[in-house]
Amino acid sequence: SLNQISKQNSHFTTHTLPAFTLLQQTQDELAQLHNLSFALYGYTIGSDTYAERSEQLKSQLHDKLSQLGERHRFNTEALKTSLYELFTAMDHLEAILSAADTDWMQQGTL
Predict the structure, then answer these.
(1) 49 within 8 A of 97, measured Cβ to Cβ
(2) Fewer CB within 10 Å, N side or C side of the chain?
(3) Cβ contact 76:68 at 8 Å
């Protein structure tokens, strides 16, 4: 019926599309973090720029996951765990690459 179609349309535009937009933005920000890490690894950006931009992206990602969980009722616990593991790895990379006395022979696991 027309009423049912209207309800489905309303749900799609008020819930599904905003959630999809948040997911797309989250994916874009993860890609930016990925590129940022490669920029630091390739020494095309400095440690200060990396730290500033990565903290900004981390904050934005945390906010997006909170919105997905609270507003759209997504179960984000596994995503948050994976995200924090990524943040830990990025922090480790930053610490190694910004250390003046890094022994590159010992850091062969990069």
Answers:
(1) no
(2) N
(3) yes
Model pLDDT for residues 9-64, shown as the tens digit of each residue? 888 888 889 999 999 999 999 999 999 999 998 889 999 999 999 999 999 999 99
| pTM for the predicted model, two decimal places | 0.79
Domain ranges of the chain: 22-98
Q: How far apart are CA 45 and CA 54, in angstroms?
A: 12
Q: How far apart are the C-alpha atoms of 55 and 67, rounded to whole Å?
A: 18
Which 3-state string (H, E, C) describes the chain? CHHHHHHHHHHHHHHHHHHHHHHHHHHHHHHHHHHHHHHHHCCCCCHHHHHHHHHHHHHHHHHHHHHHHHCCCCCCHHHHHHHHHHHHHHHHHHHHHHCCCCCCCCCCCC
Which token pair is 84? 């924090």
| Dihedral angle computed from the Cα positions of residues 79, 83, 86 and 90, in that order, rounded to the nearest 10 degrees | 170
